[in-house]
Write a structure and sequence with these properties.
This protein is of the alpha+beta class and about 150 residues long. The protein has 3 helices and 6 strands; from the N terminus they run E-H-H-E-E-E-E-H-E. The strands form 2 sheets. The chain has a 4-stranded antiparallel β-sheet, covered by helices on one side. A two-stranded antiparallel ribbon has the order 3-4. Helix 1 packs across helix 3. The model has no long low-confidence stretch (mean pLDDT about 90).
Length: about 150
């Protein structure tokens, strides 16, 4: 399986890496997107065994630990960053400004498999998890308040 998604940010996106300062450069991290996809898979299917086979997992002993056959990559981020209010309904210093990607920023999400891939059933579950995230999900801080809203062609 190998698929590329062209994604556009509709609202300011407050996504960070290790540097969590308000003025730190935002970054779109594959690990964050993988976490979203795993969460959507859990919500849709509630199948821990399938989740582990798709996204990998750890357990007691080396036998039950498995790396993920799914690879998530981010490429071609194009857009600007600026300071945006994370609480736009507040005024002044209470608006809590943070640096984020501007609306209209685009990037490519590349999802592929390795080590022989995954079964057809798991591939279908992965695709449905991706579709759910693209349709109803978001990226970064304040997604429950529509920050980091995404659109995919």
């Amino acid at each position: 399986m190998e698929k590329t998604y062209s994604i556009q940010l509709l609202t300011p996106c407050f996504c960070r890496g290790m540097d969590n300062r308000d003025d730190a450069e935002p970054e779109i991290r594959p690990a964050s997107i993988r976490g979203h996809l795993r969460s959507w898979h859990r919500a849709l299917f509630a199948d821990p065994r399938a989740e582990k086979e798709i996204f990998g997992g750890v357990g007691k002993g080396a036998v039950s630990s498995v790396s993920s056959p799914v690879i998530v990559r981010v490429a071609n981020i194009q857009g600007q960053t600026s300071m945006f209010a994370t609480l736009p309904h507040k005024e002044g210093g209470r608006a809590a400004k943070k640096k984020g990607f501007s609306p209209g920023t685009t990037f490519e999400l590349l999802v592929s498999t390795r080590r022989g891939g995954i079964s057809y059933v798991h591939q279908k579950q992965l695709t449905q998890s991706i579709d759910a995230w693209l349709f109803a999900g978001g990226l970064g801080l304040r997604t429950t308040r529509a920050a980091g809203a995404i659109h995919c062609d």
